[in-house]
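Section 5: illustrative case.
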C-alpha cells in the first residue's frame, strides 16, 4: 500500500482524532474516507419532486382513456 504524508495544522489533527473516535474508525485514513463518502453521498433532496414546487395534481381532462 502506497502512503502519502500530508501536512496538517494541530487543530485539524485534533479534529480528525475526535472524528476518529466518534465514527469508531481504526485509523485517520479510514476517518477521512468515511468523511468523503458522507460528502459525496447524494442528498435526499436530490430525489423526487423539484424542491419548492407544489406537487403535480393531474386534472380529469388530462387523462386519456
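Designed sequence:
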Amino acid at each position: 500500500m502506497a502512503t502519502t504524508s500530508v501536512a496538517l495544522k494541530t487543530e485539524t489533527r485534533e479534529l480528525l482524532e475526535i472524528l476518529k473516535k466518534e465514527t469508531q474508525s481504526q485509523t485517520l485514513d479510514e476517518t477521512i474516507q468515511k468523511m468523503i463518502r458522507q460528502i459525496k453521498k447524494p442528498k435526499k433532496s436530490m430525489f423526487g419532486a423539484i424542491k419548492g414546487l407544489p406537487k403535480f395534481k393531474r386534472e380529469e381532462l388530462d387523462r386519456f382513456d
